Amino acid sequence: MKKQIIKVRKIEKKKKENIKIEKMKKAIVKIIEKIKTIKIANSFKKIRKPEIFKNMNIFQKFRKPKVVMRKTYKKKTWKKIVGIIFMVIIAGAIFFGIIFLVKNKKNASRPIPKNSISTNLQEPGKVIEVDSLDEAFPANGEIISQGRFNNVEQILKGKALFVKSGGEVFLRLEDFEMVNGQDMHIYLSPILNLNPEDVIDLGIMKSTTGNVNYKVEKSVDLEKYYNVLIWSNRFNAFFGYASLQKGELLPEVAPVAPEEKEDEQDISQSSIDGEVSQPQTEQAEADEVLMEQNAEKIIP
Q1: Residue 37 has what pLDDT?
Q2: Which residue(s) pair with 173 in the sheet?
Q3: How would you classify the pairing of strands 130-134 and 207-216?
Q4: What pLDDT digit, counting tens, does each position of 234-248 carry?
Q5: Which residues contact 51 (CB under 8 A, 6 or more apart)?
């Protein structure tokens, strides 16, 4: 009996719920129909002026005159002007960029490739075309390290400096002098020799004498590549080098003629004089002996 009572109650609950749902649906349908019947006023419609103000000219003073322009004047010519200016700027930037790259390409520091030293005697190499060059010291430059040139196969004079200026690094040759050669390159090397696998080429030398600046890349380790080599790729000749170190350079001492040579010359000359004087004394002694003998014969 209890089970039957529970089933009856469940059925009654479902019927009540269905009745509520149907009432809700009917109410929603009525609301939608009412909404459709309502006319929404158009707020954007122009409000008509009353007939009293039709013949009055109160607002005519404040009206702006209508300007009628032709279609040709309505075109936006400023866009064309801006486009032309933009094109001119781009063309100028490209032109000056090409000039800058061409100038810096010759002296750009780059690693030397393998077997780049030309030893073919049938093809003459280029010589340094500029005899003397005097370039200014880099602006606000600070000397990192410096050293004097030493001779190997040719006579070199002057000194080399690593100079830092405004985030850039330069190798500067000051009071530099050398004889001209063919395919003369300036290298940075960790050793006093040219190893194609571990060397930095700063390009062809600009001049044989004077003060010259060579640009060095920021990535170069100056503590490792502190040797400056002057090398002739044409003949594979090592002209000379400079080993750069931090600190000030010692004053250059002028070569003085050795005094030992003068003393040796004096000694040799005195020995020669002594050798010459010896036979003279011997002859004088012999003459005295003869004079004494003759004197004894004359006395009775």
Answers
A1: 77
A2: 160, 212
A3: parallel
A4: 888 899 999 999 988
A5: none
The residue behind tokens 């004087």 is 277
Residue 178: CB atoms within 10 Å: 22
Q: What is the pLDDT of residues 70-80, one digit of tens each?
A: 555 445 677 78
Amino acid residing at 242: A
**Contact, 242 vs 228, CB < 8 A?**
yes
One-letter amino acid at 191 equals I
d(CA 171, CA 151): 19
Other CB atoms within a 10 A radius of the CB of residue 18 amount to 10
Nearest to 168 by CA among 134, 213, 218, 125: 218
Per-residue buried b or exposed e for 196-217, using 16+ beta carbons within 10 Å of the residue's own CB:
eeebbbbbebbbbbbbbbbebe
What's the DSSP call for residue 258? Answer: -
Single-letter amino acid, residue 280: Q
Provide the 10 A C-beta neighbour count for residue 243: 14
Profile the chain (300 residues) by mean pLDDT over runs of 10 residues: 76 84 86 75 52 53 53 62 88 88 60 42 65 90 93 92 92 93 92 89 92 93 94 90 89 57 52 49 58 48
First to last CA, the chain: 207
- Please give the torsion angle defined by the CA atoms of residues 165, 112, 220 and 128, in that order, rounded to the nearest 10 degrees: -20
Domain limits, the chain: 10-249
Instruction: Please tell me the total number of residues recorded for the chain in this structure.
Output: 300
Which DSSP string do the residues of 100-122 spell out, in sequence order? Answer: HHHHHHHT--EEPPTT-----TT
Q: Which of 228, 240, 168, 237 is nearest to 202 (CA)?
A: 228
Is 134 exposed, middle or buried, given 0-12, 13-18 or 19+ CB atoms closer than 10 A?
Answer: exposed
